[in-house]
Design a protein that fits this description.
The protein is α+β, with helices and mostly antiparallel strands. The chain has helices spanning 7-14, 23-42, 96-103, 125-138, 141-147; strands spanning 49-50, 53-61, 68-78, 81-85, 106-111, 114-122, 156-161. It has a single domain (7-161), classed as Electron Transport, Fmn-binding Protein, Chain A (Pnp Oxidase, Chain A), CATH 2.30.110.10. Strands 2-3-4-7-6-5 form a six-stranded antiparallel barrel. A hairpin with a 6-residue loop joins strand 2 and strand 3 (68-78).
Length: 162
């Protein structure tokens, strides 16, 4: 069932994500960190959705820095797998967590209070063709993000329990 864009989707569809290194990016990173903190404290009851789309906490390790990081991301259930969208709000580049997962695909996610070890892989063209309509049906702003990427195809990442 398709949903209409909620408030968050309307705002993010009209604005680009902040560029790394800028004061706005630092503020965005602080808000993301606060979201993860609130999510953990509430078991996902707070910070666990964006416009009714479910959110998980994705652990990843900086491929250059080795720094442990956590990113709240929207996900889709696909049977026993979960699918996350490397949209970066429609920026022309992939989000850092996407590159980090490609370099180190064994990771952990938090869904509510559950910590789940997973193995990440980029969706094949066939998987993406099947899953893209589902993710945009759940969170329509992804269509707007795709339209403004400058030609970058937004990857979907499948997270398989390990």
């Amino acid at each position: 069932m398709a949903h209409s864009k909620g408030l968050w989707g309307q705002i993010t569809s009209r604005s680009r994500p902040p560029k790394p290194g800028t004061p706005l990016f630092k503020a965005w990173s602080a808000i993301t960190g606060l979201n993860a903190w609130i999510y953990r404290r509430s078991g996902g009851k707070l910070g666990g959705t964006f416009d009714s789309a479910p959110v998980l906490l994705l652990h990843h390790v900086g491929r250059k820095s080795g720094e442990k990081r956590v990113a709240p991301v929207i996900y889709l259930h696909d049977g026993d797998d979960l699918v996350v969208v490397a949209s970066y709000g429609g920026a022309p580049k992939h989000p850092s967590w996407f590159h980090n997962l490609k370099a180190s695909p064994e990771t952990v996610i938090e869904v509510g209070r559950e910590q789940r070890p997973v193995l990440a892989h980029v969706a094949t063209p066939e998987e993406r063709a099947r899953l893209w309509p589902q993710v945009t049906g759940m969170y329509p702003a992804f269509n707007d993000y795709q339209a403004r990427t400058g030609g970058r195809e937004i990857p979907l990442v499948v997270l398989k329990r390990r």
